[in-house]
Structure formats: structure tokens, C-alpha cells
Amino acid sequence: MAARGTVKPSVNFNAEQDAGILYKAMKGLGTNEDAILQLLTSRSNAQRQQIKAAYKTLHGKDLIDDLKGELGGKFETLIVALMTLPLAYDVTALRNAIKGAGTDEKVLVEILASRTSQQIKDIVAAYRAVFDAYTKLAGFEMEESIKRETSGNLENLLLAVVKCARSVPAYFAETLYYSMKGMGTDDETLIRVMATRSEVDLLDIRANYRRLFAGSLHAAINGDTSGDYRKALLLLCGGDDE
């Protein structure tokens, strides 16, 4: 499907030439804001990244740093946003939405609901890199921050995202464990996970179940279900890890 955005890649693109235009716009007294906005709003994000690299090569300076030094206010914020890789922008926006006082639920819902499945996977993968840094800065795990700042369905959603960022199989192992823990069985969850993960990563889920809960998924299913339902689930499970 053809892209339906308003900004298209520039046809006659020359990163070095554009880097020179931006350098000239910020050189000396005063700043040519119009030249900056006209250029950057008519280039794709991928082209802006090439301009940034060319700017560093030609002038030995970071383009974003120079833009921040020359611009201000909301205009600066917009230009910096345009210069940021989409993945990095989403990750930063999500992190900022849950840190500090209160939670910006609109940002969380917007990003998680509107991105493609591949974009969500990329965001989740990128989030792994910030967990350790976040823990050092905040003094507690990101999950704890989510529990402090959110509640209800939003809390469950964000915890699921963070847990999947750490390990998808571990997340589903925990989901299966709690679907059979205590009185009664959450059959809807049990069926959903077993049906959707049996061709994806159920072997890894089994291994994580054994590691986390000192018992096998096979044994848990065997003890919590009955009849043909149990037989089918155990066949999907594929083996006992006791």
C-alpha cells in the first residue's frame, strides 16, 4: 500500500548539500529559522538521519546539539522530534509517560494502539536496553514504578509490555501459572495461550515455567483439567519437564 503521509522523501536529495544549508542557517549572528524549517519538513526521517551524519562529517559537530543551541521553545521541541529516529522517539515518549508525578495515559494508549506489530516488537526490544539504567536512576524496578503510578487495566497493560520486553516466554509461563493457581481454572486464558503459542514458543514457555515455579506445565495441566480437554492440552504441551 502506498504511503499516505504528507512528508515524502526528497527526490533530488543530497545530504552534504542539506548539511551545508543548515550549517549556514545557524552560522554567525542570528539564525535563519525559515531555512531550517523549510528543509527539515521536506525531508523524510531517514534522510534527516543522513543529513545528521553528513553534518558531523563535514563540520565535526552534532546537528541536534547545534539546533538546540540555536532554537527555543516549542519550535525547538518540534525540530528535535523531527530529527529523532521514530523508534527512539516512541521509547522516550513511553518512558516519560510513566516517570515522575502522574501518568500520561493518552501517550501510552496512542503509541501502543497505533503502531504496527513490528514497531511494537522493536519498541519492546529497545526497552530492554533502558531497564538497567532506569533501575539505577529510580532506585527500583520499572514494574514497581508502573504499580505506583497506574492501576486497573492500564496497569495490567503496561506490566504485560514490560514483562514481554524482558522475556516473552517468561511472561506466558507466568500467565499460564496464574490461570491454574488457586480455586478454579481460568480456562479462557489457558486455552488462548496454549492455542496461540503452541506453534511459536511453547517449548521455551515450558522451560521458563519449570524454572520459575519448580514444577512442570504438563503436571499443572494434568492436575487442573480433565477429559478430552486435558488430553488435547497435554498433546499441545508436548511433554513433561519434571
Would you mind describing this structure in some detail?
This protein has 242 residues and is mainly α. Helices cover 73% and strands 0% of the residues. The longest helix has 22 residues, at 117-138. It starts with 14 loop residues before the first helix and ends in a 5-residue tail after the last helix. The model has no long low-confidence stretch (mean pLDDT 85).
Unreliable residue runs = none
How far from one another are the termini? 49 Å
Helix content: over 70%
Order of helices and strands: HHHHHHHHHHHHHHH
Short description:
With 242 residues, the chain is mainly alpha-helical.
Element layout with pairings:
Elements (H helix, E strand, L loop, with lengths): L14 H12 L6 H8 L4 H15 L3 H8 L2 H11 L2 H12 L7 H10 L2 H22 L3 H8 L2 H15 L1 H13 L6 H11 L4 H12 L3 H8 L2 H11 L5
Helix pairs in contact: 1-2, 1-3, 4-5, 6-7, 6-8, 8-10, 9-10, 10-11, 11-12, 11-13, 11-14, 14-15
